[in-house]
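tokens incoming
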């Protein structure tokens, strides 16, 4: 069983962009907003998981995030301890001890 949650927090480690896209910004009513929203998903692997904080870069706002458990077992190292928003980013914590996880954050401007 593989669980993934979409939330995000910042990281003290350097993250890389996993996915980038743009989408039109619209609103309900008769007049659309003529603006494009640019979003990026950042991912940070932590092989000795304590807590990983992953933050959106300047000018971007956190819109979601999550954590992927990478131990792929049923033991104490695969426990999800925390995956939640944290400031303008995401916080990930897995394993009772040093678990392994990918932490994700979705950032838009």
């Amino acid at each position: 069983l593989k669980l993934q949650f979409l939330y995000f927090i910042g990281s003290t480690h350097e993250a890389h962009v996993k996915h980038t896209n743009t989408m039109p910004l619209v609103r309900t009513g008769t007049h659309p907003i003529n603006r494009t929203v640019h979003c990026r998903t950042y991912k940070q692997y932590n092989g000795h998981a304590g807590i990983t904080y992953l933050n959106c870069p300047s000018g971007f706002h956190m819109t979601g995030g999550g954590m992927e458990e990478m131990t792929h077992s049923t033991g104490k190292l695969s426990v999800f301890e925390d995956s939640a928003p944290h400031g303008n980013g995401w916080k990930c914590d897995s394993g009772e001890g040093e678990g392994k996880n990918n932490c994700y954050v979705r950032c838009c401007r």
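note: The first strand starts at residue 4 and ends at 5.
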